[in-house]
Amino acid sequence: KAARGTDGRAYPWGNKAPDETLCNINNHQRGTTSVDKYLSTGASPYGCADMAGNVWEWTRSLWGQDRSKAIIFGYPYRVDDGRENVNAEGDVYRVVRGGSWAHPLVDARCAARLRYRPDNGFDDYLGFRVVVVAAPVL
Question: Which tens digit of pLDDT belongs to each residue from 94-132?
């Protein structure tokens, strides 16, 4: 939802195909960029930047143990089907979303997903989003 809004858009900025003014994809920057680089052009309706391109973002959703098979948890989404098991072993693939600077334009879609294993190390096209909730002012 943070990337697609409530209208089901294909990209955080809308339905216009990605280009170098909207996100860091297709190797046009040859590496990662700062999160605010595309804030004015590529942000989602909620003001979230880099929801497409720059780095594939880890999710806690499971893909499964076989890289060659399609995702084992399909849609409709069911929170109780085991896909959100935070205690799964490190050899289980997890879903990453959003594409990266080194991947083709088609991977910048909000719905694009790939899979990686958390125990496989770290590449410069994988990352994560830090979410901070402000404490109430007393």
Answer: 899 999 999 999 999 888 888 888 887 767 888 887 777
pLDDT tens by residue, 16-33:
999 999 999 999 999 999
Contact between residue 27 and residue 101 where contact means Cβ atoms under 8 Å apart: yes
Q: Is the dihedral of CA 5, 40, 23, 57 positive or negative?
A: negative
The two tokens of residue 116 are 């990686």
Sheet holding 126-127, edge to edge: 113-116, 93-97, 56-64, 126-127
Angstrom distance (rounded) from CA 54 to CA 50: 6
Q: How far apart are CA 59 and CA 35, in angstroms?
A: 18
pTM: 0.81
User: How many Å apart are CA 118 and CA 91, to the nearest integer?
Assistant: 7
Region for residue 36 given its phi and psi (left: phi exceeds 0; alpha: psi -120 to 50; beta: otherwise): alpha
